[in-house]
TrEMBL record, chain A:
Classification of source organism: Bacteria, Bacillati, Actinomycetota, Actinomycetes, Micrococcales
Regions crossing the membrane: 21-42, 62-87, 99-121, 141-158, 179-198, 204-221, 228-247, 253-272
Keyword Transmembrane helix: yes
UniProt keywords, alphabetically: Membrane, Transmembrane, Transmembrane helix, Transport
Any single GO BP term: cellular response to iron ion
Family: Belongs to the ABC-3 integral membrane protein family.
PANTHER family: ABC-TRANSPORTER METAL-BINDING PROTEIN, IRON TRANSPORT SYSTEM MEMBRANE PROTEIN HI_0360-RELATED
GO cellular component, one term: ATP-binding cassette (ABC) transporter complex
Main location: membrane
Localization in the cell: Cell membrane; Membrane
Name the record gives this protein: Anchored repeat-type ABC transporter permease subunit
InterPro entries per the UniProt record, alphabetical: ABC_BtuC-like, ABC_TroCD, Anch_rpt-typ_ABC_trnsprt_perm
Automatic annotation (TrEMBL), chain B:
Protein name per the record: Anchored repeat-type ABC transporter ATP-binding subunit
Molecular function in Gene Ontology: ATP binding; ATP hydrolysis activity
The organism of origin for this protein: Sanguibacter suaedae
PANTHER family (alphabetical): IRON TRANSPORT SYSTEM ATP-BINDING PROTEIN HI_0361-RELATED (PTHR42734:SF5), METAL TRANSPORT SYSTEM ATP-BINDING PROTEIN TM_0124-RELATED (PTHR42734)
Keyword entries, A-Z: ATP-binding, Nucleotide-binding, Transport
Superkingdom per UniProt: Bacteria
Domain ABC transporter intervals: 6-228
Family: Belongs to the ABC transporter superfamily.
Residues in coiled coil: none
Entry keyword annotation includes Transport: yes
Length: 310, 245
C-alpha cells in the first residue's frame, strides 16, 4: 500500500494527471453537495434527494448515447422528475413520498433500458452506478467548476428565503414568499449537485455525499452558518482520503469515499460536543451551558479526518 | 369608533368545494383582544387564513388596515432547525428585507425591539430547540412583532402549555393589544372570558359576538359547542341555564 506521501507525489506526477483531476472533481462535488445537503438534511427531504439522484440516470444515459453533455442530460431528467413529483403530489390522495417512490424507480428503470440498448453497455453502466477516478477530462473540470460555482451563488442569493420556507412553510406563505418556486429551485439545486458528482462517486452512492457530511455537521453544531462550512469540509476530506484509499488499495472510488464519510459521521456521533455519546456518558446534563460558547466546532472535521486516515 | 383595523363583511369561504365559513361579519379595532372561540372544525383557522389573504373568500370582502402579524400554531415551526432565537425572529422579516439583500441595521433593531417586547432578549443566542413551550410561543410572537403589525393573529397560542406559561402569555397579549388589534383562537374558554375584551363564538358562522358581560346567555354557548344544559362547561363559565335553576 502506498503511503499518503507517495499519494501526494502521484498527484503531482504529470503521467497521472487523471488522478489529480479526479481528486479535484471529487472535492468540488463534495463542497457543492455539502452546502446543498444541509438544506436537504434540515428539511428532512433525504428521500427526495435519493429520488433525484436516481432520476438523473436516464438523462445521463441518453446524453451518453448521443455523445451530449452529461450535465445537461442529467439536469433535464432530474428536473422533469422533480416537477412530476411536485405536480402529482398536489392532490390530497397520495402523499409526496409515495409519488416519489413511483417516479424515481420509473426513471431509473428507463435509464437501465436505455443503457442496455447501447453497445458495450456493461462497463459504462458500472461506471455510472459506482463511479470511477478514470476518465475525468479537462472539460469535466471546467464544467463542474463553473456549474458548481453558479450553484453556490444561487444558494447564497436565495439563502434566507430557502431557510424561511424550511423553518415554517405556513409563515412563508403568509409572508407571500413563492413557496412552490423556492421548492423547485431547491430540487433543481439538488439535481445539479447530484449530476456533477455522479462521475466520480457514481449514481447509487451520490446520496451519501449529499446527506452524510451534512448530517455529520449537524451533529457538531447548532448554527446553520458553521454547519454549512463543516459539511463541505467533511465531504472534501472524505473525498481526498477516499480517493487515496481507492488508489492505494484498488478500491472502487465511490465506495471508498462513502465509507470514509460514514466513519466521520460515526466519530461525530460519538464525540460531538454536548450531544455526542461521550459527552452524554460524562453526564453532560450538569446544567445548561451558555449558548455563546457554541462555535468551537469547526476544528473537528480535521480531527475526524485524522481518525479515518491511515 | 375609529376605522377598524380589520373588517370582514359577509365573508363566505369554501375549502375543497365545502363551505367552511358562511356570512361572517367581524370588525376588529386597535386596543382590542378578541377571542375566536368554537369547536374543532368551526373555521377558526380558516378565518385567520382569510384575514391573511391566504384564502380567497367566495363572497364578501376583507379589508385590512396596516400590516398583519401571524403567529401560526407552534407545530408549524421546525424547532430542530439549527437557528438561534434571534435568527428565528429575523426570519419574520425576510420579505421586508427583500430579494438578494442582507438584513440591515433597521432589521436587527426591529428584532431586538420585538425580543424586548416578549422579554426574550436574554435568550437571543440560544438555539430554538432548547426552548420550553412557553418560550417557543414567545419567539413566534416576536417573529410576528418584528414587522410591527397593526393586527396580530394568534392561532391557539396556549395549546400544550402549563398554567404559569399561559398566564404569562396572557399578560403579554393584553399588553400587546393596547396598541394593536389582537385576534386569538383558543380552546381555553375560561381564560378567554376573563381576559379578552370581546368574544366571538364561531361555528361556521358567527353565533354570538360581544363583551364577556354581554354573553351571559348560555344559549349561544350551548349552540356553538353542542353542550347540554348540565354541561360542566357552562358551570365553569358561570353560566347557568334558566330551566336548570
Amino acid at each position: 500500500m502506498i503511503s499518503p506521501l507517495e499519494f501526494l507525489q502521484d498527484l503531482t506526477d504529470p503521467d497521472l494527471a487523471f488522478l489529480r483531476k479526479a481528486v479535484l472533481v471529487a472535492v468540488m462535488s463534495s463542497v457543492v453537495c455539502g452546502v446543498v445537503g444541509c438544506h436537504v438534511v434540515l428539511r428532512g427531504m433525504a428521500f427526495m434527494g435519493d429520488a433525484v439522484a436516481h432520476a438523473v440516470f436516464p438523462g445521463l444515459a441518453v446524453a451518453f448515447l448521443l455523445q451530449g453533455s452529461l450535465v445537461v442530460g442529467g439536469v433535464v431528467a432530474g428536473v422533469v422528475t422533480a416537477v412530476l413529483v411536485a405536480l402529482f403530489s398536489q392532490g390530497r390522495r397520495l402523499r409526496e413520498d409515495t409519488v416519489i417512490g413511483v417516479f424515481f424507480v420509473a426513471a431509473f428503470a428507463l435509464g437501465i433500458v436505455i443503457v442496455s440498448r447501447a453497445p458495450g453497455y456493461t462497463g459504462t453502466l458500472e461506471q455510472f452506478l459506482f463511479g470511477s477516478v478514470a476518465g475525468v477530462v479537462d472539460e469535466d473540470l471546467y464544467v463542474v467548476g463553473a456549474v458548481g460555482s453558479g450553484l453556490l451563488l444561487v444558494a447564497l442569493l436565495l439563502h434566507k428565503e430557502i431557510v424561511a420556507v424550511s423553518l415554517d412553510r405556513e409563515m412563508a406563505r403568509s409572508a407571500r414568499l413563492p413557496v412552490l418556486a423556492l421548492d423547485l429551485v431547491l430540487y433543481v439545486m439538488v439535481t445539479v449537485a447530484v449530476v456533477i458528482s455522479v462521475q466520480t462517486i457514481g449514481n447509487v452512492l451520490v446520496l451519501a455525499l449529499l446527506i452524510t457530511p451534512a448530517a455529520t455537521a449537524r451533529l457538531l453544531t447548532d448554527r446553520l452558518g458553521p454547519m454549512m462550512l463543516v459539511a463541505p469540509l467533511v465531504g472534501s476530506a472524505s473525498a481526498v482520503v477516499g480517493v487515496y484509499l481507492s488508489w492505494a488499495l484498488d478500491l472502487p472510488t465511490g465506495g471508498a469515499i462513502v465509507l470514509v464519510a460514514t466513519v466521520a459521521f460515526l466519530v461525530a456521533w460519538c464525540l460531538a460536543p454536548r450531544h455526542g455519546l461521550v459527552a452524554r456518558g460524562r453526564g453532560a446534563s450538569a446544567g445548561r451551558r451558555d449558548v455563546e460558547q457554541d462555535q468551537p466546532f469547526v476544528g473537528v472535521p480535521g480531527r475526524s479526518g485524522a481518525v479515518t486516515g491511515p | 369608533m375609529t376605522t377598524p383595523a380589520v373588517r370582514l363583511d359577509r365573508v363566505s369561504v369554501d375549502l375543497g368545494g365545502r363551505p367552511v365559513l358562511r356570512d361572517v361579519a367581524l370588525d376588529l379595532y386597535r386596543g382590542e383582544l378578541v377571542a375566536l372561540l368554537g369547536p374543532n372544525g368551526a373555521g377558526k383557522t380558516t378565518l385567520l387564513r382569510t384575514v391573511l389573504g391566504l384564502l380567497r373568500p367566495r363572497t364578501g370582502t376583507v379589508a385590512v388596515d396596516g400590516e398583519v402579524g401571524y403567529v401560526p400554531q407552534r407545530h408549524e415551526f421546525a424547532w430542530d432547525y439549527p437557528v438561534s432565537v434571534e435568527g428565528a425572529v429575523l426570519s419574520g422579516r425576510v420579505r421586508r428585507i427583500g430579494w438578494f439583500r442582507q438584513a440591515g441595521v433597521a432589521d436587527h433593531q426591529a428584532v431586538r425591539a420585538a425580543l424586548d417586547r416578549v422579554r426574550m432578549t436574554h435568550l437571543r443566542t440560544r438555539p430554538v430547540g432548547e426552548l420550553s413551550g412557553g418560550q417557543r410561543q414567545r419567539v413566534l410572537v416576536a417573529r410576528a412583532l418584528a414587522l410591527d403589525p397593526q393586527v396580530l393573529l394568534l392561532d391557539e397560542p396556549f395549546t400544550g402549555l402549563d398554567v404559569p406559561s399561559q398566564d404569562h402569555l396572557t399578560e403579554l397579549f393584553v399588553e400587546l393589544a393596547a396598541e394593536r388589534a389582537v385576534l386569538m383562537t383558543t380552546h381555553d374558554l375560561v381564560a378567554a372570558v376573563h381576559t379578552c375584551t370581546r368574544l366571538c363564538l364561531l361555528d361556521g358562522s358567527v353565533v354570538a359576538l360581544g363583551t364577556p358581560d354581554e354573553l351571559h346567555d348560555p344559549a349561544p354557548w350551548m349552540r356553538t359547542f353542542g353542550a347540554s344544559p348540565t354541561s360542566p362547561l357552562l358551570r365553569a363559565l358561570g353560566l347557568v341555564p334558566q330551566e336548570a335553576l
